[in-house]
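Sample entry (497 residues):
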Amino acid sequence: MPRRSRKTSDLATWLGTSRTPLFVLDAERRIRVFNAGCQSLTGWSAADVVGEVCQYASVADVTGGSALAASLCPPPEAIAGQEISVPAHLAHRDGHTLARRLYFFPLHDDQRQLTGILGLVGDWQDFSEVSSANPAHRLHAELAAMRGALRKRFGLQALVASSLPMKRVLVQAELALSSRVFGLLQGEPGTGREHLARVIHFAGVDKQHWFVPLDCRRLSAAELERVFNRLLEVHKGPAPGAALPQPGTLYLSDVDGLPRDLQQRLCEFFDAAGISRSRTLRLLASTSRPLEELVASGSVRADFAAMISPLILALPPLRERPEDLPLLAQHFLEEFNRQADKQVAGYADDVMELLERYHWPRNLDELWEVIRDAHAAATGPLVTRGDLPYRLRESLAAQQLPPPPVQAELRLDPILTEIETRLIRQALKRSKNNRSKAAEILGIHRTRLIRRIEQLGLGESTGDSPATGQPVEADSSQAQPTDGPKSTEASSGGAGD
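Predicted structure, serialized as tokens:
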């Protein structure tokens, strides 16, 4: 027995001191061994990492050993007992990421129950190798790589941005991080306006102070005024650097709902003598409508609009950033992995195709809800089509329906004109273009018929037939002899003047 114990001790020593980076997880994904090779590679000590639980998530808001533990997490296939290798980006202690390939070997007992997982870290310098990986694993690695790039360039990783519209937002956000410039976040509901405001605050110069969000549409004028009184009193009280925290960022959601008298009060506060914008309080606001339109409608004062908009960050709707959709879906999925024991690696190919076809009218809020429900319904390592919520599948089906047929415009005058034209033509045809007889057929006065023929363009003033273009027969009531004596009626003047 002592001899066996010594061999076990020798094995543990060999594993711990080996320069080949390796680590061991137990069945609950908790790190039990983090050897010298791993410590040398990542800059983290065993004391920093051992005991951390690995979550299959490219985390954005954790630091220390938890960040590295997340990057070492095996995919669900390994937990299910499959030997597998995956691309990964390991979180180094100094903040950068290391592109590597992880090899996982499940360990089982006599009953084939999982007791642990042995992990080896291999070289992987060529990122193009990721193209041959499983799509779900590739997306996981791409998300981790994007977070590392954002952290390296902008000092933040809590945003998902690979599309051109969002890269423009990132550049603007970088300006806001290094100053206390006021800003307006403009975009449709659900595009992540408050999330971006929080990122700017907590990654900026005043992150030690309060972030105070106020919904200008939901709060009454009295409630808003009461909050303003409290905030502005606190801000005027302790000087910067005092022990008590102060409001650092005041975020006004849907600022067009802020009463005009409170807009004026804020303008006066920031313009007052002795109160400089260079102090700790920063003002961020959001709206779903163009600022010029709000000023024109009178819902926002012109001076208030000028004060809140030195920097305008236009957040695009989800339908205008299709390149970000796969990464956003993976990001939300991994966030739910962190909150549950169940770990889901990614999406089946046909699922991602469906997500990309949908138009997402409620933007990121709707995507978050769909992924939440799909994660809860998933029973395997990947989200399948059947895991998607019913409402999404119904919306997709409705989206494919053709638009309803356009109803023809019903206007009475053209219809009546067409009917009248047909009746006049028929009457003229039956009367052989005798207008007096045609008037009798139609039951109207001859003068009225002639006027309507002219108005409808059915005959020329010369009396041509509207149908044949031939001269119209003279009416018998107006026929005059070409020679001989005048009629008695005409000569006697019986018609009168």
